[in-house]
Design brief:
Strand content: 15-25%
Structural class: alpha/beta
Radius of gyration: 19 Å
CATH architecture of the domain at 99-234: 2-Layer Sandwich
Largest sheet: 6 strands, mixed
Number of helices: 8
Number of strands: 6
């Protein structure tokens, strides 16, 4: 029986773009009986609707199966590889180099829930939870990500993020950030000898909201997160699952770009 279509379901073109990146069943084991396209559709349904795993509609695969593949592909790096491949394809499709030369960095503090896991209090944002620290390219596509407790200062969290960024993108030349990252972090990046940290500050005469060069790009990416209710808070017990969820949101966004072209 063919089920009713959800708005979060992949199109044929979207599925063909990622089908080849889905690992095959383990050799010597029981043949895979589940439809992997439906597994991905179920994950995208959770991302957009914000529902719990156990509340997946009955016409989608069992939640235990869906979560099992989510966890397995997170641990074996499938989501990371798929995300990076799509990002390169989207960049080339837009007439850019596959690998970027500039990035924009910022963080977002979000509340956690009662599922447990690490958390901390961000006194500046008055948020008890975690921080999503990201670097994006000039199109707002995710380059690097770390989720950590919200009590870690931006400058300290940025060190963890930029060390990871250096190993992933050796050709990166400049990373733009706001005034909250000014100070000792700039000197630390100079010692890193990987790229330049360019601080973009508001002018002293500015009043109210002001669009800052480059910085608005990473803010727009956080705005994209708002379209996915699963990211309204951090619902995950493990920060590794939090990072995988954000990667999957970006995968979904990039697949929609394929649809629009």
């Amino acid at each position: 029986m063919i089920r009713a279509k959800y708005s979060t379901d992949m199109s044929d073109a979207e599925w063909s773009a990622i089908e080849g990146h889905i690992p095959s069943a383990h050799e010597g084991g029981r043949p895979r009986s589940v439809d992997m396209r439906e597994i991905i559709n179920a994950i995208f349904y959770i991302l957009r609707s914000g529902c719990a795993w156990r509340l997946l509609p009955h016409d989608l695969p069992p939640w235990q199966t869906v979560y099992g593949y989510f966890r397995r592909f997170r641990k074996d790096g499938t989501w990371d590889k798929l995300h990076d491949c799509l990002r390169e394809r989207v960049r080339v499709q837009a007439g850019k180099n596959a690998t970027p030369f500039i990035g924009m960095m910022d963080s977002q503090s979000v509340k956690t829930t009662d599922v447990g896991g690490v958390r901390g209090y961000d006194a500046g944002k008055k948020v008890n939870g975690r921080k999503r620290h990201i670097v994006v390219d000039s199109s707002g596509l995710l380059l690097c990500l770390i989720v950590h407790i919200a009590s870690i200062q931006d400058r300290d969290g940025a060190r963890l993020l930029l060390e990871k960024l250096k190993s992933l993108f050796p050709n990166l030349k400049v990373v733009f950030a706001d005034g909250g990252y000014a100070g000792k972090l700039v000197q630390w990046v100079e010692l890193l000898k990987a790229f330049v940290l360019n601080i973009i500050k508001r002018t002293d005469k500015a009043k109210g909201f002001q669009v800052l060069p480059k910085r608005w790009i990473v803010e727009r990416t956080f705005g994209w997160f708002g379209k996915y209710r699963r990211l309204s808070k951090d619902y995950e017990r493990l920060t590794e699952n939090s990072e995988a969820t954000i990667k999957l949101v970006m995968i979904n966004l990039m697949l929609r770009r394929f649809r629009s072209t």
